[in-house]
Write a structure and sequence with these properties.
heterodimer, A: alpha/beta, Rossmann fold, nine-stranded mixed β-sheet, four-stranded mixed β-sheet, 6 helices, 13 strands, B: alpha/beta, eight-stranded parallel barrel, about 40% helix, about 25% strand, globular
Chain lengths: ~200, ~250
């Protein structure tokens, strides 16, 4: 099993690599097109800002490469958002793999206090679709850190509710993505990563 | 629904977790990497590692320790203690830490909060505030609670939020070590004034104190050290207790 983690100007790449090491998998962290194409599975992680990251992807031809991949691809956090059609974060056109659009959470007055943004912490997910969630009970808690979200739509593969229901995961053909961080989501997250590896 | 978080805090000296009634009587309780992983297995939602022997010479050792912790932990963790330079922060992030907590450095040079948020994103920046209630106001202290500043808790918290902090870790010096409960009144005011999450610290003595901190104190997370290290309360028991009291908790 050869797994490539796409290397680009984003944080959080190490923690995905560590998570794979816990399964005994030595991933290859690379920006190289040939290496990425040759891998059995590709992970597109990321924490950062949408427009500067898209700019970086374009400068390195990764905006063309990623949508053309045929093996299973897993986007994480900003990775999910960049795989969508468009992000409100600095009005950025994205890769367009998923039709969904990325919007910013609007804080609203709750019964007791303002619902806070960023959405940070453990929240429950349901309405699973796809094998990423194989063998998982509905309502599992996973770890989120984000201020922007993909709306729900045809590609939604799991739903979380924070201020509004949004896509906790997306899937279309060989492309999978999670808004939460499976590498930081305890045993549930580990199961999701294992399910991806087993695809 | 977003769950309330339970955060064990591990004070580290060399690679050991230490906790004493005071710093002169430090008692080692175990290896930081192993203890961290054990808390994760028990269901801790996050961990905080504070380097109590923070110094320039220690920084390199700390980076190595962070790498080991990150390799073994499948939950988020924060590292803090004497961190004041962007170069150090960059190395710690590259080693795999999810968040950095700063305290005295932010008071001395508030611009560092803006710089950290701009370079690494607000979600990386936890500002820890130690404050003491005296003469009708909450005064912010630095250097591990040894030096009083001219800052007041609420205005300082709002200022660091504006500068880009992603979370506030508030320790009430009046409550810390007493085991009589958290500073719920001040915490509730913080929660109402801030748009970022608040981690409550100082005063945990029994399981009901955590119910109070999440309901009366409106905190997003509760942090404690000795009650967990000495097994006075275990994380699984605490989580069951909170769920039975209607608090949303990850199990």
């Amino acid at each position: 099993m050869k797994i490539a983690i796409i290397k680009y100007n984003a944080g959080n790449i190490m923690s995905v690599d560590y998570a794979l090491q816990r399964f005994g998998i030595e991933a290859c962290i690379t920006p190289d097109h040939d290496e990425i194409r040759a891998a059995d599975k590709v992970i597109f992680p990321g924490v950062g800002e949408a427009s500067t990251t898209m700019q970086y992807l374009k400068e390195h031809g990764l905006d063309q490469l990623i949508p053309s991949l045929k093996q299973p691809v897993l986007g994480i956090c900003l990775g999910l958002q960049l795989m969508c059609a468009h992000s409100e974060e600095n009005n950025t056109p994205c890769l367009g793999i998923f039709k969904e659009k990325v919007k910013r959470f609007t804080p609203k007055a709750g019964e007791e206090y303002i619902t806070k943004v960023p959405h940070m912490g453990w929240n429950s997910i349901d309405n699973y679709r796809t094998d990423l969630f194989k063998d998982l009970k509905t309502g599992q808690f996973v770890y989120f850190v984000h201020s922007y979200y993909a709306a729900t739509g045809a590609d939604t593969a799991a739903v979380c509710d924070y201020i509004t229901p949004f896509s906790a995961a997306l899937q279309k053909d060989n492309f999978y993505a999670t808004q939460f961080h499976p590498e930081k989501s305890g045993t549930v997250g580990a199961q999701i990563l294992e399910n991806f590896i087993a695809l | 629904m977003l769950a309330k978080r339970i955060i064990p805090c591990l004070d580290i000296r060399n690679e050991y977790v230490v906790k004493g009634v005071n710093f002169l009587n430090v008692k080692e309780v175990g290896n930081a990497v192993e203890l961290g992983a054990e808390y994760a297995r028990q269901g801790a939602d996050e961990l905080v590692f504070l380097d109590i022997t923070a110094s320039h010479e220690r920084r390199k050792t700390l980076v190595d320790l962070v790498k080991q912790i990150a390799a073994h932990l499948n939950i988020p963790f924060t590292v803090g203690g004497g961190i004041s330079e962007l170069g150090d922060i960059e190395k710690l992030l590259a080693a795999g830490t999810d968040k950095i907590s700063i305290n005295s450095a932010a008071v001395k040079k508030p611009d560092i909060v803006d710089q950290m948020a701009c370079h690494f994103g607000s979600q990386f920046v936890v500002v820890a505030i130690d404050a003491q209630f005296k003469d009708d106001k909450w005064t912010v202290f630095v250097n591990g609670g040894r030096i009083a500043t001219d800052k007041e808790l609420f205005s300082w918290a709002r200022e660091v939020e504006d500068r880009g902090a992603g979370e506030i870790l508030f320790t009430s010096m009046n409550h810390d070590g007493t085991k009589n409960g958290f500073a719920c009144e001040a915490l509730s005011s913080l929660a109402e004034q801030l748009k970022i999450p608040v981690i409550a610290s100082g005063g945990a003595g029994n399981m009901h104190h955590f119910v109070d901190v999440f309901t009366k104190g409106k905190a997003d997370a509760g942090l404690a050290a000795s009650i967990f290290h000495f097994n006075e309360i275990t994380v699984p028991d605490l989580k069951d207790y909170l769920i039975n009291n209607g608090v949303v908790i990850r199990k």
